[in-house]
Amino acid sequence: MSKPIPPVQKYMTSSPHAIGLEQTLHHASEMMRQYGIRHLPVLHGGQLTGMITERDIAVICGLA
């Protein structure tokens, strides 16, 4: 007998931290450090436009 697969809702964050599209990578990195998170939704005008991750920032900063 297999276990039932739980819904995403059980594990998701209901009130995630987010960052504005116009914010800097430094600000995103500081938010991630402050809140102990690795991914930030990116919003513009209240609409989701993408995600930024710790790894994205590390790669971008490594290229500079």
Task: Report what the structure shows.
The protein has helices at 25-35, 54-63, and strands at residues 19-20, 39-44, 47-53. Helix content is 33%, strand content 23%. The longest helix has 11 residues, at 25-35. The chain starts with 18 loop residues before the first strand and ends with a helix. It has two helices and three strands; from the N terminus they run βαββα. The protein has 64 residues and is of the alpha+beta class.
Q: Give the number of DSSP strands.
A: 3
Largest sheet: 3 strands, mixed
Structural class: alpha+beta
Label the overall shape.
extended
* Distance between the ends: 53 Å
Main sheet: strand order: 1-2-3
Low-confidence stretches at least 5 residues in length (pLDDT < 50)?
none
- Mean of residue pLDDT? 93
Q: Number of helical runs?
A: 2
